[in-house]
Structure formats: structure tokens, C-alpha cells
Write a structure and sequence with these properties.
The protein has 5 helices and no strands. By secondary structure, it is mostly helical. α2 runs antiparallel to α4 and α2 packs parallel to α5. The model has no long low-confidence stretch (mean pLDDT 93).
Length: 122
């Protein structure tokens, strides 16, 4: 499930770069466009990654990272299902692409911490 989500995000990002020439540039993105409930929930969860790492370190229990990762994948999949990048106006597409890029990066970081190789395709 987690590998599939990472591969799906990797594919989406590459497709947007290749076909639409979209490359998220933070300074040009209006993050206020990310205002749907699923987007906000995903953003809030992404912000808690450091907390999950700290808890795992403090308790000597890597399951905190695993639990966080499963929740992240679930929220990312919900967001992807409800909020498209393709066929949206460029400003919204860029904001969502940045959000999905962040989600992919955090998934990859969690994999690295757990000693798992992230797959770009399945």
C-alpha cells in the first residue's frame, strides 16, 4: 500500500513535469488555494511527521513511524481521489502538485528511516 502510493505520486509528478511542463516553485504558488478539507487534513498530517519521529525515538518504538506512514498514505489517497492536478487551472494544479510532492517526500523519508527502499514504479 505504501509503495503503491509512493509510485503513484512519483508517476503523477513526472507526468505533470513532462506533459504540462509544471514544476512546483514555492515562491510562485498560492497555498491559499489548498482550502478543501482533504487538502487541509493532509497538510496538518504532514506537519506532524517530526512528532512521529520524536515519539519513535523517545519510546524506542519504530511503530510510531509506521503508524504515521499508514495514515499519511490513507490521507494522500483520499486527497488524490478528491483533488485532481490534471485538468485544473494552473494555479490550483501547481499548489496541489506541491502538496503531493511534499507527501511523496515524507513517504520517502519515512521509508529511509525504516530502512525500506522507496519504489518509483510497481
Amino acid at each position: 500500500m505504501c509503495h503503491y502510493a509512493h509510485a503513484r505520486l512519483f508517476s503523477l509528478i513526472k507526468k505533470c513535469q513532462r506533459e504540462l511542463n509544471l514544476e512546483p516553485q514555492i515562491e510562485k504558488i498560492d497555498l491559499d488555494l489548498l482550502n478543501k478539507q482533504s487538502e487541509l487534513t493532509l497538510i496538518q498530517h504532514l506537519a506532524r511527521f517530526e512528532e512521529a519521529i520524536w515519539q519513535a525515538y523517545h519510546d524506542y518504538e519504530p511503530y510510531h513511524v509506521v503508524h504515521y506512514l499508514f495514515q499519511l498514505v490513507k490521507l494522500t489517497n483520499i486527497c488524490l481521489k478528491e483533488n485532481y492536478v490534471l485538468n485544473e487551472c494552473e494555479n490550483v494544479a501547481m499548489a496541489r502538485l506541491l502538496l503531493y510532492s511534499c507527501s511523496k517526500q515524507v513517504i520517502q523519508n519515512a521509508f529511509n528511516i525504516l530502512g525500506i527502499e522507496a519504489l518509483d514504479s510497481i
